[in-house]
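TICKET: design request
STATUS: open
ATTACHED STRUCTURE:
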C-alpha cells in the first residue's frame, strides 16, 4: 500500500510510505534534486518493490528547497527521526547524491561538518546501503571522512563503468574499513541492471536483521 504523507520539521518534506505492514522500514534518499532527482526515482522504486516482497516498508521522500547539501543532510536525519518514532528497525538507503547524503547523515560522533547538533539523529540507523555515492558533495564536506564515523553495518555498491560520480575514494575507504562492497558492470544509472542493484541492496539490508 502506497500512502502520500509529509514529514514535519525544520523543512516539511513530501514523502511516500510504501507500507508492507512490517515493523521495519528503509528510508530511501533520492538523487540530486537540482538534476531532477526525487522520491519517484526508478532505483528507489526498485528497492522499495524488492523490500515489499519481504514485508519491509520503505519511506521515499523529497528534499526541501536546495541548500547545497547542508539542508539535504538534515532532511535525511529528519526522515530517519520520523521513522524511529514509528518502527522498531530503521535502515537508510540512498542513490547517487542521496547515497552521499545518507553516509553524511549516518555519521556520528564527529566534530566536523557531519556532526549533528539538532538532536534529530541521536541513534544511527540499523544499517546503511549506499548506491553509487560520490566522494564530495558541494559544500557539505567529505563523504570519505564520514565513513569512519558510521556505527552500523554498511554497504557500498558501485557501477564499474560509472564516469559521473567520483566513487573510487569512497570505495577504497569503505574497503579499508571492512564494509561490504559490491560492484556491477554498469554505468552510474545502472541502466538495464536496476533490478540486480536492488537485489544486492535488499539482500544486504535483510541480512543485517538476522
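STATUS: resolved
RESOLUTION: sequence designed for all positions
ATTACHED SEQUENCE:
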Amino acid at each position: 500500500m502506497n500512502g502520500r504523507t509529509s514529514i514535519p520539521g525544520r523543512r516539511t518534506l513530501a514523502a511516500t510510505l510504501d507500507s508492507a505492514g512490517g515493523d521495519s522500514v528503509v528510508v530511501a534518499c533520492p538523487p540530486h534534486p537540482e538534476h531532477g532527482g526525487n522520491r519517484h526515482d526508478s532505483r528507489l522504486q526498485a528497492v522499495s518493490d524488492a523490500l515489499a516482497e519481504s514485508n519491509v516498508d520503505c519511506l521515499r521522500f523529497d528534499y526541501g528547497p536546495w541548500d547545497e547539501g547542508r539542508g539535504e543532510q538534515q532532511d535525511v536525519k529528519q526522515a530517519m527521526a520520523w521513522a524511529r518514532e514509528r518502527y522498531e528497525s530503521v535502515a537508510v538507503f540512498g542513490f547517487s547524491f542521496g547515497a552521499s547524503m545518507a553516509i553524511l547523515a549516518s555519521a556520528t560522533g564527529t566534530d566536523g561538518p557531519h556532526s549533528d547538533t539538532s538532536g534529530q539523529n541521536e541513534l544511527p540507523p540499523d544499517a546503511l546501503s549506499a548506491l553509487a555515492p560520490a566522494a564530495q558533495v558541494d559544500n557539505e564536506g567529505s563523504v570519505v571522512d564520514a565513513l569512519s564515523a558510521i556505527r552500523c553495518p554498511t554497504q557500498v555498491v558501485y557501477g564499474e563503468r560509472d564516469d559521473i560520480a567520483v566513487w573510487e575514494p569512497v570505495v577504497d575507504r569503505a574497503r579499508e574499513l571492512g564494509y561490504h562492497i559490491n560492484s556491477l558492470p554498469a554505468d552510474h544509472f545502472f541502466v538495464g541492471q536496476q533490478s540486480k542493484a536492488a537485489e544486492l541492496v535488499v539482500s544486504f539490508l535483510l541480512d543485517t536483521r538476522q
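CLOSING REMARK: Residues 110-121 have pLDDT under 50 and may be disordered. The longest strand covers residues 89-95.
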